[in-house]
Design goal:
By secondary structure, this protein is mainly alpha-helical. It has one domain. The protein has a two-stranded antiparallel sheet. Strand 1 and strand 2 form a beta hairpin. The chain is globular. The N and C termini lie far apart (37 Å).
């Protein structure tokens, strides 16, 4: 899951999304994945359905919530996690594809 989160964070950087959050009046921290997916820039670039799907798979407690289950050690070690692992792999591949599409669009725009 860290790879999917890092990949989506890199995508946000590529599209000038906000990957930081202000704490109080003077402290800046890294934004959570949910906050990155909430960024209007992210939704404007990839659409509401993509953002809703990623949120449901990775961060929404009403969905699979894979990022949080993994990050907080909430998956039962003795459980069968092959389906969740497959979904996690697909999220990493989606993050790679999104970033590649953004980089390609930027390269095409600068070549024009």
């Amino acid at each position: 899951m860290p790879q999917a989160e890092r990949g989506l964070r890199n995508v946000a950087v590529e599209i000038d999304g906000n990957v930081h959050r202000l704490i109080g009046t003077d402290e800046v921290r890294v934004a959570t994945l949910d906050k990155i997916l909430d960024d209007p820039v992210f939704e404007a670039k990839f659409g509401a359905n993509t953002v809703k799907s990623l949120r449901g798979l990775l961060t929404d407690p009403r969905g699979l919530n894979l990022r949080n289950l993994t990050a907080h050690g909430l998956l039962d070690p003795s459980g069968q996690h092959a389906p969740a692992a497959f979904v996690a792999l697909m999220c990493v591949l989606v993050a790679i594809w999104l970033r590649a599409s953004v980089v390609a669009a930027k390269a095409q725009a600068s070549a024009s």
